[in-house]
Description:
Layout: H1 8-21, E1 35-39, H2 51-69, E2 73-80, H3 84-98, H4 104-134, E3 139-145, H5 156-170, E4 174-184, E5 189-191, E6 196-211, E7 218-223, E8 229-235, E9 237-242, E10 253-256, E11 270-273, E12 278-284, E13 296-299, H6 305-314, H7 332-337, H8 348-361, E14 365-378, E15 386-395, H9 397-409, E16 414-416, H10 420-428, E17 434-435, E18 437-438, E19 448-451, E20 454-455, E21 458-459, E22 468-471, H11 475-489, E23 497-501, H12 504-510, E24 520-525, E25 529-530, H13 532-536, H14 539-542, H15 551-556, E26 559-565, H16 569-583, E27 589-595, E28 598-599, H17 616-623, H18 625-634, E29 642-643, H19 646-668, H20 686-707, H21 711-739, H22 743-764, H23 769-780, H24 804-826, E30 836-840, H25 844-861, E31 865-869, E32 877-881, E33 884-889, H26 896-921, H27 924-929, H28 932-961
Helix pairs in contact: 1-23, 2-18, 3-4, 9-10, 9-16, 17-18, 18-19, 19-21, 19-22, 20-21, 20-22, 20-24, 21-22, 21-25, 22-23, 24-25, 26-28
The protein binds one RNA strand of 75 nucleotides through strand 6, strand 9, strand 13, helix 10 and helix 19.
Amino acid sequence: MLDQFFNAAEAEQQIYERWEDAGCFKPSMDTSAEAYAIVIPPPNVTGVLHMGHALNNTLQDILIRFARMQGKNVLWQAGTDHAGIATQMVVERQLAEAGSNESRATLGREAFVDRVWQWKEESGGKIVGQLKRLGASCDWSRLRFTMGERGAEDDQMQAAVRKVFVDLYNDGLIYRDKRLVNWDPHFQTAISDLEVEPKEVKGHYWHLRYPLADGVTYEHPVFDEEGEPAGTETRDYIVVATSRPETMLGDTGVAVHPDDERYKDLVGKHVILPIVNRRIPIVGDEYPDPEKGSGAVKITPAHDFNDFDVGKRCGLEVMNILTSIAAIVDGEEADTAAIPADYRGLDRFEARKQVVAHFEAHDLMQEIESLKIEQPFGDRSGVVIEPWLTDQWYVNAKELAKEAIAAVKDGRTRFVPENWEKTYYNWMEDIQPWCVSRQLWWGHRIPVWYGPEVFDGELNQTSASFGQVFAAETEAAAKQLALAYYQREAPDWGVKHIEVVSDWNSALGHNAFEADDNDTIALFQDEDVLDTWFSSALWPFSTLGWPGETEELNTFYPGAVLVTAFDIIFFWVARMMMQGLQFMKDIPFKDVYIHALVLDEKGQKMSKSKGNVMDPLDLIDEYGADALRFSLASQAAQGRNIRLSTKRIEGYRNFTTKLWNAAKFCQMNECANWDGPIDPSRVKEPVNQWIIGEVARTCDAIAKAIEGYRFNEASDAIYRFTWNVFCDWYLELIKPLLNGDDAEPKAETRRVAGWVLDEILKLLHPFMPFVTEELWEKLSEDGPSRDGFLMMQSWPSYDGFENAAADAEMDWVLEFVSEIRGVRGILNVPAGAKPGLAVVNGSTETKKRLQRHRDVLMRLARLDSIYTDDDVPAGAVSVVLGEATLALKVADLIDRQAEGDRLKKRIAGLEKDIGGIEKKLSNEKFLANAPPEIVEEQHQRKADWSAELIKLSDAFAQLEQL
RNA sequence: GGUCGAUUAGCUCAGCGGUAGAGCACUACAUUGACAUUGUAGGGGUCACUGGUUCGAUCCCAGUAUCGACCACCA
């Protein structure tokens, strides 16, 4: 016998292990079956499961389990992501916290990367274990990692990344460029636009006076207190505003709009830049907006994206004044910029204070404005990002985007919900070059080796130029390329060997070529690694064995659907589209289902700093994985975020208990279906015929909803059927049959009830895999053993299982009971009281139904007797059911006042409704334009309501006479 | 500034061109009955506002207001 409750904590782990041991998660590789594949959005390998993962993987698991039960050849490709910056950050922090003297710098690259691998191995299994606790039925035997395997020669995942890079390079779609990047001074790496988070912070605009050179002055308009023009004043300076005053050290010009009357004549003149005392030009450019600020803009081409463009147009110098940690430069660059000694090496914020102080001290500060300003922050480091001029590798995203846009436009890939397509287009159509190099150590090293450049057969030794690029998938291939190159381009050198050295400095020494006997050229590999998303972009095919040609690749590419949240449409989805189309010549997935974000109860994003994080594992411990999953699925309506509350999860935990107890009831009553499929045409009892049809309808609704990614509708359908139809009605309705002595209906009912329970387990399984599997197994203990796991059962299909006559009859029974219960409630008839009931004016059909369901009606409506009569007995309470009046004989039990109120209220309601319909039916336009079935419906409704009105009015009149 | 979304019961949210729904909360009643992690019943809504289309609008369209998200910009 089943226990009182489902013990999730005990059962879940065991069940999961049995599934996995039995190989249930592996694809059938049945070639006759339709292939269905989903690649998991790989979580950070060292991360922990959060609510977003829980939702994301619950939805995928529902799709996967559903497809598996449908007999498809199903692969849920599992894997984890190396998460470059995030993981490197964690390990660096660990080193710092360990308190030893070790740091990234002291360890050096190799040892540090080793540490990260070590950390990956220690913690990398954790998230996988957590996904298992959620019930995710991924094929773990195919687990992949974006970085491949540690130290493995010829690792396929790494080979995929290198091949993509090299192929794109050879096609001119990857190139090296010197331009401003978003520089993260904390990690000392470039980051992509997407990794920059603009945040509003308190700041200032400092309005600075730059003195005009050569004694120039101009007339600047002034305004009085009311803002009215009040003539002009003569100025020997020009005012510019900035939120980053320290950048003035790198100013190489001041721009004004060429049509700006105030400054027109100043174009071509110069200012003397304070502090550094450099003479810089005033230029005319369209960029400054005369309406904003003073209308004059300081131009710092090396440290501002807009200024960079202005500088380019106006031929201004680009003068770098910041180091990689965003301190003011020292040495050669500082000399060039004429930076005074007391600024050199200063942190940017210290320098800011000092600059401000200088301006104030020298009467050069026009105004300090305090306001909120938007500043760019690194999403991982949390420090202010500086635009910085560096050499980086870029992917020509614009070119790759063309096909990726086309694939969505022509419907090869479809977004669900559709409106995300627009977001995708908006971004794709204005896509910027993708900076893919990162100055990190943890990641795929860029497969590029540099050698000395050759000009006219001569080695270019000026500034030690190593501009010759050899992009190759292996070091050996790079060497080959280089050898061929130098022998071809510089035959005089007599190069015979290529050597790879660790860095630029060693290469410089090797390639000195001072002695004629040097026949070796040294190359060194690019120090940088690739953006994590570069490898993630290949995920749909790299995980399946590409660049090899594998059976899995042939079978499972493209995938059926990608399930993800909108926040990585740009990071990931768009890039998978681009790379998939480029390298597989086909879309990576047919559908992209974009689900909601999971927020806390108040609609806030969960974050550690807010302290409102809900840990899915805690919730699983408390309520069971099934309850959490169901809660997430039931709220996964398209286009809205999920506010998660424990109340709701608790409710679905109760649902598992309800199901469990229903199963226990079936077990106690020997309700089981050991005889396989049921033949509805041989089922005789209306209640059984009806419930079979309800199962069929529910199954259909669930399947349609899942196929349309309407998870909330699907979970709703199975919930309602299980609780409100099966438990609340069916089990109550069959109790008399089960307790009765009539052998044949009893046997039929036992079998049908058992069958329905089995079907519920199947239909519910994708949502609540654990409790359903547990029940499937526990219930099997009483009978012949069943054919394997529930999760491997076929998704049911019911054709011709519905029975309209049974439905009509049972609807009548349900309404009968509901009406009587309702009137009892309103009139406060004590639950223990069992009045008699007269059925007046019942048709033959009604009388038959009364006969068949007498026991059930008396039981559920709590009646003492049911009989037919010609008139409503005096003092009885009338309820209208179809053509009949149900007269509850409760005269001495009820509150007459309450009954009068009830009737009045109902009568008034009916009169109002009938009035509305009459108005409609007298409207000729309605009759002319509305579809006939609607008109007919209105007529029918009017007739029904009018009949009821008459009966209730009679009843009211009678009550008054008493 | 651009784009997208939201506004429905006390709360959280579904839904829909033809009688307004769920869960939770609330109220009353029930207790050794599969289940109190329960059952039965009930109260509660001008579907943000203003126009338009329509025989009919909570639903479609336009506008307004409020809230939110994303993108861009910010001297």
